[in-house]
Amino acid sequence: MYYAGCDIGSLTAKAVILDDNGILASSLIRVKGTALRSASEVMDRVLENAGIRLDDIALCCSTGYGRFDIPFSDMHLTEISCHGIGAHWLNDSVRTIIDIGGQDCKVISLDDRGLVAGFVMNDKCAAGTGRNLEILARALNITIEELGPLALQGGRSQSIENTCSIFMELEVLRMYYKKMPIPDIASSITEAVARRVMALTRSVPINDSVCITGGVSKNSAVVAMLETMIEKKFVGLSHDPQLAGAVGAALYARQKSAREHVC
After folding, report:
1. How many whole angstroms separate alpha carbon 75 and alpha carbon 68?
2. Residue 249 zone, left/alpha/beta (φ > 0; ψ -120 to 50; rest)
3. Which end of the chain has fewer CB atoms at under 10 Å, N or C?
4. Which fold has domain 92-236?
């Protein structure tokens, strides 16, 4: 049997198909104009990758900001629960997740079954998120993909004191017009984002085995700076960490299907 997880975030849409043996296929795209369009396209792609049809899916679980707007979903759960069980399934040693997505960042504490024991979330401001990084990269006329490698080349970062994304952009533009080297500005940006995320750990302590998920897990500079700040190396996951929420959603669909068949 096949089970699907669909995670519609603010910047990307992800889908995963599980069978009884593990991950059969996955897909990740930029979001479209609506949650429905995003979900339909990413699901079409993952079904094509798996070589199956939507009718073959026993149960589909949706998560993320757009989880309520997916007509082919049979159930929906919060991204916090889905990231928890998904990351734990991808590495069962994980006890803390730092999830940095497009519109929010979270620190999630897990028990030994992958269930959420506690969490803290910043969703009041874009600072410390993937959207924040995109805005600041654009201010430097570089892409988000270029930001991390450039930051690692920076020799000297300058502290960005503002915690509001709008004022952070103004600080970055001032550095740019003063002709500060682009790698140094990039390093300043990623350090500011890492510090913003690090502030959340005052409420949810970092346990020994910690991983990073979400789109910002692809930014090598933010990852390196966070590892320095928390004084721990992130443990690896067996699949793309940006897909952890979709994996967790598919797992919940599989669990629910199993319970229904037992009944």
Report:
1. 9
2. alpha
3. C
4. Nucleotidyltransferase; domain 5 (3.30.420)
